[in-house]
From TrEMBL:
<dbReference type="InterPro" id="IPR001034">
    <property type="entry name" value="DeoR_HTH"/>
</dbReference>
<dbReference type="Pfam" id="PF08220">
    <property type="entry name" value="HTH_DeoR"/>
</dbReference>
<keyword id="KW-0805">Transcription regulation</keyword>
<feature type="domain" description="HTH deoR-type">
    <location>
        <begin position="3"/>
        <end position="58"/>
    </location>
</feature>
<dbReference type="InterPro" id="IPR050313">
    <property type="entry name" value="Carb_Metab_HTH_regulators"/>
</dbReference>
<dbReference type="InterPro" id="IPR036390">
    <property type="entry name" value="WH_DNA-bd_sf"/>
</dbReference>
<dbReference type="Pfam" id="PF00455">
    <property type="entry name" value="DeoRC"/>
</dbReference>
<dbReference type="InterPro" id="IPR036388">
    <property type="entry name" value="WH-like_DNA-bd_sf"/>
</dbReference>
<keyword id="KW-0804">Transcription</keyword>
<keyword id="KW-0238">DNA-binding</keyword>
<dbReference type="InterPro" id="IPR037171">
    <property type="entry name" value="NagB/RpiA_transferase-like"/>
</dbReference>
<dbReference type="InterPro" id="IPR018356">
    <property type="entry name" value="Tscrpt_reg_HTH_DeoR_CS"/>
</dbReference>
<protein>
    <submittedName>
        <fullName>DeoR/GlpR family transcriptional regulator of sugar metabolism</fullName>
    </submittedName>
</protein>
<dbReference type="InterPro" id="IPR014036">
    <property type="entry name" value="DeoR-like_C"/>
</dbReference>
Length: 256
């Protein structure tokens, strides 16, 4: 197969599946992973796709605002993992916490020590990850399952938070804009995260540098509800200055 033909097929496959891994492409086309990485680099320069950690994602508009978990799972992996590890430092034995359905929350659940905690979540992935940790009490919201994000949303999920009060909520979002607050791509996710924020004494927003300055489709809350922002060291220094002017506590993780 000619190089141009292989690259054309890669673009077609990425657009069909929305995300694909390097090892998957390597096996499919019977070439080395290094060859695939060179293909993806060239195709990204040509703006035919976007590379991510371990694979590539489509740049064509999706029919749904909800991004598939498989796609989020391979985007900014290193940063999300380090942010999750920093978030764990904010958790102490006996805490009652909320974890949302973000991939960062899943990394956090995976790395949490098996200590006495109560975790309330709307994420199937988080609940399953914590199920093997005997000292952690896991409470799932129930509700309508979104198959792309493996999360529960809707009236039942939202009303679950009316019955509980926790010390800390660990939440991600699609965008944080200094003037317009935090936002989500999906209105249902915005509503349930609003309930999470209202149920907690302290709110930790866990986002990587790429989400600052972004205003997604559905407004969630203004910045004054946030107690701490956990992000990576690639955050723009102008954004840091703006956040400091608003007296927001920024926790930077050095991932480089």
């Amino acid at each position: 197969m000619l190089v141009a033909e292989r690259q054309q097929k890669i673009v077609k496959l990425v657009n069909e599946k929305k995300s694909v891994r390097v090892n998957e492409l390597s096996q499919l086309f019977s070439v080395t992973e290094e060859t695939i990485r060179r293909d993806l680099e060239k195709l990204e320069v040509e703006k035919k796709l976007s590379r991510s950690h371990g694979g590539a994602i489509s740049t064509t508009p999706s029919d749904s605002l909800e991004i598939p978990y498989s796609e989020r799972e391979i985007t900014n992996v290193k940063e999300k993992n380090e942010i999750a590890l920093e978030a764990i430092k904010q958790v102490v034995e006996g805490d009652k916490v909320i974890l949302d359905a973000s991939t960062t929350a899943w990394y956090m659940a995976r790395a949490l020590p098996d200590i006495a905690l109560t975790v309330l979540t709307n994420s199937m992935k988080v609940a399953m990850e914590l199920s093997s940790k005997k000292q952690i009490t896991v409470m799932s919201t129930g509700g309508t399952l979104l198959t792309k994000s493996l999360s529960y949303v809707g009236p039942l999920a939202e009303s679950s938070f009316d019955a509980y009060h926790v010390g800390k909520a660990f939440i991600s979002c699609k965008g944080l804009h200094v003037d317009r607050g935090i936002s989500e791509s999906d209105e249902r996710q915005a509503r349930i995260k609003t309930k999470m924020i209202e149920s907690a004494d302290q709110v930790f927003i866990m986002i990587d540098h790429s989400k600052f300055g972004v205003q997604a489709f559905s407004h969630l809350k203004s910045l004054d509800v946030i107690d701490h922002i956990i992000t990576d060291s690639k955050i723009d220094q102008n954004v840091v200055k703006q956040l400091e002017e608003k007296s927001l506590h920024l926790i930077k993780v050095f991932t480089e």
